[in-house]
Specification:
75 residues, mainly alpha, 4 helices, 0% strand, rod-shaped, membrane, transmembrane helix
């Protein structure tokens, strides 16, 4: 049905092209960068803090167990 309409009135194609160009020029005038680049997530920062805290907890646990073991062996 659309093909018949285009054959009967070729100006429709021109009008749609004009609307598309107008929309593109309007978008370029009001272009906004993606939200992710404007407001980056703090996920990487919190992930690094989480892993470092896990590492420190593990280190402190090993040190605590070593000290506890030495105290038990040498009363």
């Amino acid at each position: 049905m659309n093909a018949k309409r285009l054959q009967e009135d070729p100006t429709i194609l021109r009008q749609t092209a004009d609307k598309t160009e107008a929309a593109l020029s309007e978008e370029s005038d009001t272009y906004l960068p993606p939200r992710r680049s404007v407001h980056p997530t703090e996920r990487e920062r919190w992930l690094r803090i989480f892993y470092r805290s896990l590492l420190w907890i593990f280190i402190l646990l090993v040190i605590g167990l070593l000290l506890w073991g030495w105290k038990r062996l040498n009363p």
